[in-house]
## 1
Amino acid sequence: MEQKSIVSMAVVRRLPRYLRHLDELHKIGADKISSTALAARMELTASQVRQDLNCFGCFGQQGYGYNVEFLRQSLADILGLSGPRSAIIIGMGNLGHTLCNNFSFSRCGFSLGAAFDANPAVIGSVVAKIRVLDIKDLDKYCSAHKPDIAVLTLPAAPAPAIAHRLVQNGIKGIWNFTNTDLNETRALVENINFADSLMTLCYRIKTSNL
Amino acid sequence: MEQKSIVSMAVVRRLPRYLRHLDELHKIGADKISSTALAARMELTASQVRQDLNCFGCFGQQGYGYNVEFLRQSLADILGLSGPRSAIIIGMGNLGHTLCNNFSFSRCGFSLGAAFDANPAVIGSVVAKIRVLDIKDLDKYCSAHKPDIAVLTLPAAPAPAIAHRLVQNGIKGIWNFTNTDLNETRALVENINFADSLMTLCYRIKTSNL
């Protein structure tokens, strides 16, 4: 697949959205779509759609548009979703349970291998077929199974130290729900920050005319 | 407070992060901080910090830096966190429960008034002092209590229709966890999209040299 050497993160972050819309189009039986129609669905401009997708190869044909199934498969490949890479969860409170029970890691390119917690009340339990292990055994597990990423759903206070330990254990990526910035330069960190998001909504409402 | 008329969303989205770091500085008893030191904590440049904060007023003093407590209070005011505005949750599955039980809405400028679900098994229950009401009573509740925002933690399929109904009921903002794009132009939508985020991490790992 031809790909521009440097693709901006803004474009990369739109790829999963393109894929979502193509999945929906596929579900309703659409086999092709124009850049104009795809742009309208996604509230982008047709030119932006073409520019975004051109970063990764030639998918469209003038006068025809995009083949939905081909573009969908191509974007999944570009994102690396057929991996699968392996993930572990650190922190089996409510959010850890919710992710284990309800979130499809496999659809996002990962298989979930284990969960860890420090609380004796949850250690040893099994949540959605995932065994909860003692955080004390983290190093041993990492050395045996070499997970690619860790999902951090533990409290903010211990998060930086755990992140550091994970990186020392070869973790390449951290999906960080802890509402704290992790200054780990040796791993890729993707943050989901509930409070930052809701505060932003608060600001937008305050400054809007609604 | 003097404020530039148009502040870019990229700057707005950094405000909660500034506030978080100032909260931490306050906790450890720091009373002032230079733009250079604040920038280092946040992995920004000193010039970016000064530019960002200058969008909202004059907070720093050359040779002194920023007064932590004053800047912290000012950013909280700018974000509108002392509101409080009112919120409701739609969808009391695992994620709805997790947010009710573990997330501090008040710290983000909101008070949570009620939760709604269609499942008779949860309707009538009380989660973290929040009563779960029947989704059938949504219009009646909105007309009596006029909530400002709705948190959508329901499945993707019914989300667009519910969002539309909420907007017709005067909802100004939607905090959207449903992994679907809501084309509601009459409300401000802030998305938290787990799958998009994890797919982005997948891409970044695939294309990195880690």
## 2
Amino acid sequence: MENRLKEFKTLTDTLYAKNHLLGVMIFDGETIAPIASADARSKSMSVINEEIFKLLTSPSSQELINYLYEKRSSLDEITQRELTLIKRSLKLLKNMPMNEYVEYQSLLNKAQVVWSQAKKANDYEMFKPYLEKIIEYNKKIAAYYAPEKEPYDALLEMYEYGMSMADYDPFFDEMQKQIVPTLKEISNKPLPEYKFLSMPFSIEKQKILSDRIMDLMGLDRTCCSITESEHPFTTGFNKWDLRITTHYYENMFESSLYSVIHEGGHAMYEMGIDDKYQFTNIAGGASLGMHESQSRFYENIIGRSKAFMSLLHPIICDIFPEQMKGVSEETLYKALNLVHPSLIRIEADELSYSLHILIRYEIEKMLISGELNVDEAPKYWNKLYKDYLGVDVPDYRSGILQDIHWAGGSIGYFPTYALGSAYGAQMLAKMNESFDINKDITENKIQNIHKWLNKNIHVHGSMYDPKKIISMACKEEFNPQYYFDYLNNKFKDIYEI
Amino acid sequence: MENRLKEFKTLTDTLYAKNHLLGVMIFDGETIAPIASADARSKSMSVINEEIFKLLTSPSSQELINYLYEKRSSLDEITQRELTLIKRSLKLLKNMPMNEYVEYQSLLNKAQVVWSQAKKANDYEMFKPYLEKIIEYNKKIAAYYAPEKEPYDALLEMYEYGMSMADYDPFFDEMQKQIVPTLKEISNKPLPEYKFLSMPFSIEKQKILSDRIMDLMGLDRTCCSITESEHPFTTGFNKWDLRITTHYYENMFESSLYSVIHEGGHAMYEMGIDDKYQFTNIAGGASLGMHESQSRFYENIIGRSKAFMSLLHPIICDIFPEQMKGVSEETLYKALNLVHPSLIRIEADELSYSLHILIRYEIEKMLISGELNVDEAPKYWNKLYKDYLGVDVPDYRSGILQDIHWAGGSIGYFPTYALGSAYGAQMLAKMNESFDINKDITENKIQNIHKWLNKNIHVHGSMYDPKKIISMACKEEFNPQYYFDYLNNKFKDIYEI
């Protein structure tokens, strides 16, 4: 047994190393690499990706993993969990023929290029055949992964373990019932003062703001760097090596501000995972939804709270005295919480954000079940935007072609964004039972919030499934009602409804 | 044969991919990675380094390479050269036992940490045992690589193919005879005006200067990015993916300026290599010396020439009008060519630079032959600095502990720096036979220089050995007299001797 465990350690160390190098390669590609480097990078990465595929699916690895999995009750908890997670990650790989896997990857590479051209040209017909093929492939993938499940349920589980339509259907139903009416009411209200946000804020000074915000969040810079990229993201390879990125716009300083807070939330999660899980597949957040719960907790629940303005307002005034002349805490709070139902998901405010996800959920579900085909999809997309957000979609570019996700093969991914927000609201309610978080924020005791999240969420990494972590942290099952209440209370108060 | 060539292609593609990922990892570590990331990075990299070692030295790779090498006369020129180069890179690896290789790598890792501490503490005794072990290891390495050669000759060849003490001895002898007296004469002359260089030049504006300089050099930014690091360097993975780095000092703007030109010269070389060699081991400069010839050609021969001031002066005046008030082209030229014999190699001026190398060459040679031991080395170091540069070495930190090279196991590397400068001066002489390079620079026809270097040096990559490339480009053997003449003419003119 000792020797077999050593073999397993060698296997997981090798996988860690290869994924580590691939991760740095992707990060580099999104940040500093020159544009023309893409082809060779993709070629080199596919050599290593193929090695990983072969290593994981080789008969000897399979035999080893199965051997240990059968004897898992005699192994320590961490190894047991590692085996469970590796078995899960193999569910798809071991059933999917290598040639289909390679073909699918190459389809996705092409699809993303075509999507980008189609979006630019506002030409849905150009992208449509790729979308159709990707949907067909996803049905196949669902069948390889979990043939006993409804295809969309299988896909949902691949992105968020334990979740299915049985969980998401009531969540999104209630969202529609409880949020859409509030949004409609607010749309009839006059807008607060917000024009000062679009004054020029020099990028050099915005960089100083990023540093101050990272300090405020307590992000240890020896373990977390910041750089720029087209779209902000976070990546990390272990708790001592996190990187967040942002994108500066001179006339939209709040964009980078909230990117830094959002990505900082992701980084806090990874940096808080227990040392003992590092370099295993347990290091890393428990799921996409759990990750999003942390980033959105910092971005919205803390970062856009009234209480947080007492910390944020003096910092912004200090760095941008000209632009902030006459802007009070209250004005800043309302401007940073401006509700404006829009066409574009990534520009959405906190209230309407999840409705963008609701629309994608409904459409994905129907595309996978066959109730909706790719020809009809744009029309249905536009109808839902009118129904839920009250906006008319003028073109494909700001409609169904706006997101890269489907072109990248991610069907079933979107719902985790909304789920993360709901997880966060439930955590907030629970946290407020132990201490008054608004009071702690205004008294600059923000570290009490870090501590709660660290102890109840971060430290576990992927040791438990997301549903289990929620019920351990909140002492009850996942309950999205907290989210709807949180949104309604906050925005009805701001808009005096 | 066709199948065997396919196997070879798979082997070289795999090696390329792994080295590509490792290279990006190193680049990332030197630039954006957070400090605490070092341990895990080094661990992941050693997994991949071990894979490369095993792959290259495996019996099946050996058999394949030997099989093809024996039949090389029936193969195309490129494959022949690839085989020659891979055979050379195996000369050491196939003879060195895996455990010694691993032990040596671990010694070097430790030695570099100790060196850094020893330098900080000005404590040679601390570093001495590591230096001693590294010297012993290098003697072993020399014997594995080329048992028939003098050990230092073997080491010299590992860094610059075709070079040995028989080449370097007369080169450095003449350098001593022809350059040391000039330096002594200049040391007695009054210094020109140079104080304006140490005024504050804002880093943001220095970044604009970097961009302008890269544009002036014609560096295609879609294939070459720039970022910051502790010490400037260039790395690249193919001609479409080069990265240069610089380091900005507010009170020493010329430091970054000449780093950008120097590293830009390295990048020009790599970007100019023929497409048909890309992704083989022929892509990449022909040797360290050849690479240095290109970086120093751009940095010194062009970048510090009187003619270049007519392009540089207006750019600097445009970006820094305050600091340049009253500074003429002539004043700028003399300030940027200030001769001040110093203790530190990396801060040396163009005239005295190679004397720093001469000193290291003499000491390395004696350390490897056993004529000098590590106890006596610092005293001898100080003596040579007094004899050649006329300076007193006050401490180890600015004496024998100043460079990381020996701690990194690089013995035999330094001479390539001086060699590169000499190669460059010979190219200059040859180029001036075809066109007047000063005239072309002042007329902003700098692309004629790029073209000459591209056609005669860059395009070949490593298709030929450095000595062959020099003789093809210059229609004569390597002749360092051009270098001594170039230096004496330039600096005697500036200092009116």
## 3
Amino acid sequence: MRILEDRIVKEGRILPGDVLKVDSFLNHQLDTVLISEIGREFHRLFKDCDVTKILTIEASGIAVSFATSQFFNYCPVVFAKKGGARNIGDDVYHSTCHSYTRGGEYNILVSRNYLSKDDRILILDDFLASGEAMKALIDIARQAGCTIAGCGAVIEKAYQGGAEIIEGLGVRLESLARIRKMSVEEGIDFCR
Amino acid sequence: MRILEDRIVKEGRILPGDVLKVDSFLNHQLDTVLISEIGREFHRLFKDCDVTKILTIEASGIAVSFATSQFFNYCPVVFAKKGGARNIGDDVYHSTCHSYTRGGEYNILVSRNYLSKDDRILILDDFLASGEAMKALIDIARQAGCTIAGCGAVIEKAYQGGAEIIEGLGVRLESLARIRKMSVEEGIDFCR
């Protein structure tokens, strides 16, 4: 998605530890025009998949998922919660993932009330790197017996192996910007 | 906002500790039709205030703010981050608030890059109870020299004093559903 790639080049900042910061439009400040276009693109890619619900994870996946749902006839969005399960009740699906950026393991949780075997789920997230978070969302959707229409990532760090993990689970993956490699010295190189 | 009140009565669950759970449409699963209507209502209330940016707090404020921004000509949304300031950089505004639901204090943070004295800010959140989170957002907006157009809460627990705190700071407040009192035995009574 060219307007997204251009924006990443223009405003993304590469930090030590292989971190790409896109806080000016996706992860802290939200460019709601661009995010609406991201929603339109996810719809174009998955429009024939009879999506009934979008599953994502707090916090940065929420805006993208909301925008996308509008193109899927305002289907519901469910966002998984991270960590300590405060206030969510005991009746949850959960899965564990490892965080490379923050270190350590954390749980993600979804109430059993909001996923069912009748749902055809589109799983969305802002970043795909090692695939840990998306793999956990797939695990939860499968625990609930959902059909998974596919996974969508706004930005994929294609050199970190996440796509192989998701596709190895038998799930279709679409990423809107795929980074082949990046460095402070040489900038960002996309797979095109 | 009558459709919101009706939905709270129909699906809200009152839990011990004076907790109102609205996970089926606002805090975990998102009813994107209702949330779009919430955005339309915030626009109706603040449309003459020359809003240039919406400020909220992760995670449940994000969808409401995204929906509202669409009615304000897709103005940017900034969501404050809670807690440990991972990855956000040092150059932040921060404010501290006390959490009654979780206990203890936590920090909220906004990068200095995304608020300026030229901004006319609409502050939105899903809940207003004691007013701690909204007061911290006002504090941050004032640190940045922004003009505050007003604050909007989707649901206000009007018996917890938050409105008096916000209005005591000289900020206009609009809440879309105002709960006068609630209990498991007697249900929910709205201020109308």
